[in-house]
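Final report, results section. Input specification for complex C-07:
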Amino acid sequence: MALNPRASAPRPFKVVDVPGKGKGVVSTRAIQAGELVLAEKPLFTAGLVRPEASLAAKVAQLSSVDQLAFYSLSIAPPSTCYGPHRARFDTNALPLGEDATEAGLFPVGARFNHSCRPNVSRFWEEAAGEEWFVASVNIPPSTELTIYYNALDSPRAERQAYLLRTLGFKCTCERCDLAPDEVEKSDQRMRFYAQIEALIPTLFAEPHKLVTLAKAGLNLLAEEGLHTGAAALAYDAFQGAAFAGDKEAAKAWATRACELKVRETGREAGSYKRMESLAADPTRYNAWGFLGVKRQVPRP
Ligand SMILES: [Zn+2]
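Structure output:
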C-alpha cells in the first residue's frame, strides 16, 4: 500500500553543515507550499520512561547502517548528563503526535533545525507510521528548511527559555531577532492568542462568539507569519457554524480549513481528506445542527 507515493521520489533537499548550528537541511530546488518534502519512519520509538539500557538494547537491534545513522546524531548540552543512547534520543526524538507520550527517532528529520517561524510543518501520520514534513510556504532553492521543536505560540522569553533548558541553544531565528518594539507586539499577539485558545472550548453553545474569536485568532497567526495551528482554528469556526446549522458558513469555513491545512499536512494526509469531505458536504459532520435552532455565524 503506497500511502505517500512521493516518499520514494528524490528528496528536494540536502543535509549540509550550517554555520553555528551543526548540520542543517537546505532546499536543492524550489519547493511549493503543501509539498511533502520528507516522510520518514522512526528508527525506533520510546516512551517518557526511557532508561539508557533499554535504549541501548533497541539500538543494538538496528542494522549497522541504522546504527551508524544513530551514532552520528548530535547531543545537546542539557543531555550530556545521560548515557550516549538516552542523550541522543532526548536531543533528537520527536513526539508521535500532539500530547503523545511516545517519541520517535527520525535520523533525517532530526537534521532540520528549529525556527520560531518555520517554513516546514511536521506531524505524525498515524496511518502511514511516518513523520511527515510539509512545506508551509513556497521555498526558493538554497534556503534552509526549518521546523519547530516546541513552544511556537508563546512569547519570546518563554520560547527561548524552553529551547535553552531542553536543547541548550539560544534561538536567533527571525522572530526572536526582531527589534524590541516588534518583539513586544509579537508577545502581545501570542498572549491574546493563548486567551483565545483557552476560551474556544467553552463557547460551543455560543457559535457566533466562537467563530468571531477563531477569526481573530487566525488574524493573529497570519500577522505573526505562523501556519501551525491555523487549520485547527478554521476547523473550530467550522464546528461553530455546524452546531448553528449555518450551511453556507460551514462550507466556507471547511474550505478555508482545507486551504490552511494544505500548508500543515499536504493533500495526502488522512486528516486533510476528512476536512475535504466536510467541505464538500458540511452536513456530514456528526454533530450537525446540534443546537437545534439555525443561527447565522460570521464567514471567513
Ligand atoms: Zn526563535
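The beta strands are 13-18, 22-27, 36-40, 45-46, 94-95, 103-104, 113-114, 120-125, 130-135, 144-147. DSSP finds nine helices and ten strands in the chain. This concludes the modelling results for the funded period.
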